[in-house]
Design a protein that fits this description.
The chain has ten helices and 13 strands. By secondary structure, it is α/β, with parallel strands linked by helices. The chain has three domains: 106 residues, Rossmann fold (3-Layer(aba) Sandwich), CATH 3.40.50.2300; 108 residues, Helix Hairpins (Orthogonal Bundle); 163 residues, Histidine kinase-like ATPase, C-terminal domain (Heat Shock Protein 90), CATH 3.30.565.
Length: 411
């Protein structure tokens, strides 16, 4: 920043000599040859570091000009050094100070003294200017902070309102889910009786009148029996699914090897029918609900048997991985169920756990479309999560992650 200095003198030679005196100091000089001209300049410009003004000038002298300058609020900060060739005595010097002057210098001017005094006032101007700039920056920063605080308060209120709304929605959803589960349970339970009668009477019809039916009649009867079987399976799965929500969170320290072993015994006929080979590595003991873990393993193994390749015997491996986390609260066990079946495109990895979601036509593979959704619900009931990795014609790996500790553990 180049400081501006206003030189006021009625003699041009004095203005030029004053300007040449400060030639090396990198000041910018504005010259006025009368008090009136100085006032005109100060009407447009007021960012001067200093005014050097001769006292004796025609029309308006230096003192009168200073008085008019300081009548304007914007100009009161500019220091004035009076320069005169006459000694008017202490009274006039006092008058100069009274008018607002900061110093009084006699001619002939001592160049070094004048340059030193001007340098002091220019330095003060620079410092004041820097302080004003800093003040403006602080005002701007404070304004931004005030706006940010106001915006943050508004955002916090919005977040609180959204949280309240979210909690209310969660409460309504939980209530709706419970009502839906109760309805599904009751509906499934009530459907058992008419379905049982359909099966009984179709079986009686088949036994007693089979010989009297033609091929078309036998075909219709066979279809009725198959449909009732599928409906029975669907109702059973719905009952199990709806029971999970109302099942108490009773977790016991259980040997997973025994739970898997019991499931394999129950599935012995299906395993032999498919000529499947199932290997079970050593599994850990976990805090689980054993009632729910059996349908979990049953559905995962059934899924592997169902979607096997036609030209290869099913190979299923069940193993476990434990993370190295020392803190028991964060420790998880991963149970992997691997198969060599037909697999599927990985882009469907999330969809396979949706209710009634089937990636293959109903006629190609039997099932209700509930099994994997049931697995997901059981795992989430255990505060865990389930995922799958799969490739077409290369098999699938279902990964069940369960915590070692549960909130309501019973020893």
């Amino acid at each position: 920043m180049q400081p501006k200095i206003l030189l006021v003198d009625d003699r041009e030679d004095n203005l030029l000599s004053m300007e040449s005196l400060f030639e090396k100091d990198n000041y910018r000089f504005i010259k006025a040859n009368s008090g009136r001209q100085a006032l005109k300049i100060l009407l447009k410009e007021f960012d001067f570091a200093l005014i050097l003004m001769d006292v004796k000038m025609p029309n308006l002298n230096g003192f009168e000009t200073a008085a008019l300058i300081y009548e304007r609020q914007k100009l009161k900060h500019i220091p004035i050094i009076f320069i005169t060739a006459n000694n008017y005595g202490e009274e006039n010097v006092f008058r100069g100070y009274k008018m607002g002057g900061v110093d009084y210098i006699y001619k002939p001017v001592n160049p070094d003294l004048l340059r030193a005094k001007v340098a002091v006032f220019v330095d003060l101007y620079r410092k004041n200017h820097a302080l004003l700039e800093q003040e403006q920056k602080l005002i701007f920063i404070n304004k931004n902070l005030e706006n940010e605080i106001a915006e943050r308060k508004i955002s916090e209120e919005k977040i609180k309102a959204l949280n309240r709304e979210l909690l209310a929605n969660i409460g309504r959803l939980e209530s709706a889910n419970k009502d839906l589960d109760r309805f599904a349970y009751m509906a499934s339970h009530d459907l058992q009786e008419p379905l049982r009668k359909i099966r009984i009477f179709s079986d009686r019809l088949n036994l007693k009148y089979n010989d009297l039916l033609d091929e078309e009649g036998k075909n219709y009867l066979d279809r009725i029996q198959k449909v009732t079987q599928r409906m029975q399976a669907l109702i059973n799965d719905l009952l199990i699914f709806s029971k999970i929500s109302v099942e108490k969170d009773l977790f016991l320290q259980s040997d997973l090897n025994k739970l898997v072993g019991d499931v394999l015994v129950d599935m012995e006929h299906s395993i032999m029918e498919k000529n499947a080979k199932i290997s079970v590595d050593e599994l850990p003991s976990l805090c689980v609900n054993p009632v729910l873990m059996q349908p979990l393993f049953f559905n995962l193994i059934s899924n592997a048997l169902k979607y096997c390749k036609k030209d290869a015997d099913p190979l299923i491996r069940i193993r476990a991985e434990v993370n190295s986390e020392k803190n028991q609260e964060n420790k998880y066990c991963r149970i992997l169920v691997e198969d060599n079946g037909i697999g599927f495109d990985q882009k469907y990895a999330e969809q396979v756990f949706e209710m009634f979601r089937r990636l293959h036509p109903k006629g190609e593979f039997e099932g209700t479309g509930i099994g994997l959704a049931l697995c997901k619900k059981i795992v989430e009931k255990h505060n865990g999560f389930i995922s799958v990795r799969s490739k077409v014609d290369e098999g699938s790996v279902f990964i069940v992650s369960l915590p070692f500790q549960q909130g309501s553990q019973v020893n």
